[in-house]
Amino acid sequence: MKTMGFARLRIVDSEAHREPATRWVAHGSGDIIDNIEVFPTLFDALQDVDFTIATTARSRAKFHYYATPAELVPLLEEKAGWMNHAALVFGREDSGLTNEELALADVLTGVPMVADYPSLNLGQAVMVYCYQLASLMQQPDKNIDISDEFQLRALRSRVMRLLSTLDVAGDVKLVDWLQQRLGLLGQRDTAMLHRLVHDIEKNVAK
């Protein structure tokens, strides 16, 4: 990942990086290992993240809307104009991410393959994404309006509260569809949907 310009790495519920063998295969990336941040859960690791992308094998997930690695580039370019921190999440080598962990993501992504097997191993998958997204790491930092931070997260919370108010939060298909589609919204659409939800909330309260 360092060769592609990535420098920050977070690990959830594992101490494997402390094993001596980690440095043997790191090839000049000791600085990344030294600065690894460890969290007890994925939820904890994402608390300061504005936008989360989770990788998954298409055939094993309950979700249906995916962005390919190539499609992530314009999506993240747009998000960079109003978000400070994005995270790309990889699952366990043997079992990937759970459905509960996938539900924490704004967008799901998978590597298109001709056949389901053989699948990519974790190291191969990381390199595919790092290579595809490397161009984003060369872009200068932008000054983000603090009022725009966490707007997507706030919208998700408002939508879920509204669904509960309307007594439709138990509609799993509707909730899944909304949760997956909200992550694809741009800044203008997110702001407009905030206004729409606000107007609905006012009228429901009457």
UniProtKB/TrEMBL annotation:
<comment type="function">
    <text>Catalyzes the formation of 2'O-methylated cytidine (Cm32) or 2'O-methylated uridine (Um32) at position 32 in tRNA.</text>
</comment>
<dbReference type="GO" id="GO:0160206">
    <property type="term" value="F:tRNA (cytidine(32)/uridine(32)-2'-O)-methyltransferase activity"/>
</dbReference>
<keyword id="KW-0808">Transferase</keyword>
<dbReference type="Pfam" id="PF00588">
    <property type="entry name" value="SpoU_methylase"/>
</dbReference>
<dbReference type="InterPro" id="IPR029028">
    <property type="entry name" value="Alpha/beta_knot_MTases"/>
</dbReference>
<protein>
    <recommendedName>
        <fullName>tRNA (cytidine/uridine-2'-O-)-methyltransferase TrmJ</fullName>
        <ecNumber>2.1.1.200</ecNumber>
    </recommendedName>
</protein>
<keyword id="KW-0963">Cytoplasm</keyword>
<feature type="domain" description="tRNA/rRNA methyltransferase SpoU type">
    <location>
        <begin position="1"/>
        <end position="131"/>
    </location>
</feature>
<keyword id="KW-0489">Methyltransferase</keyword>
<dbReference type="GO" id="GO:0003723">
    <property type="term" value="F:RNA binding"/>
</dbReference>
<dbReference type="InterPro" id="IPR004384">
    <property type="entry name" value="RNA_MeTrfase_TrmJ/LasT"/>
</dbReference>
<comment type="similarity">
    <text>Belongs to the class IV-like SAM-binding methyltransferase superfamily. RNA methyltransferase TrmH family.</text>
</comment>
<dbReference type="InterPro" id="IPR001537">
    <property type="entry name" value="SpoU_MeTrfase"/>
</dbReference>
<keyword id="KW-0819">tRNA processing</keyword>
<dbReference type="GO" id="GO:0002128">
    <property type="term" value="P:tRNA nucleoside ribose methylation"/>
</dbReference>
<dbReference type="GO" id="GO:0106339">
    <property type="term" value="F:tRNA (cytidine(32)-2'-O)-methyltransferase activity"/>
</dbReference>
<keyword id="KW-0949">S-adenosyl-L-methionine</keyword>
<comment type="subunit">
    <text>Homodimer.</text>
</comment>
<dbReference type="GO" id="GO:0005829">
    <property type="term" value="C:cytosol"/>
</dbReference>
<dbReference type="InterPro" id="IPR029026">
    <property type="entry name" value="tRNA_m1G_MTases_N"/>
</dbReference>
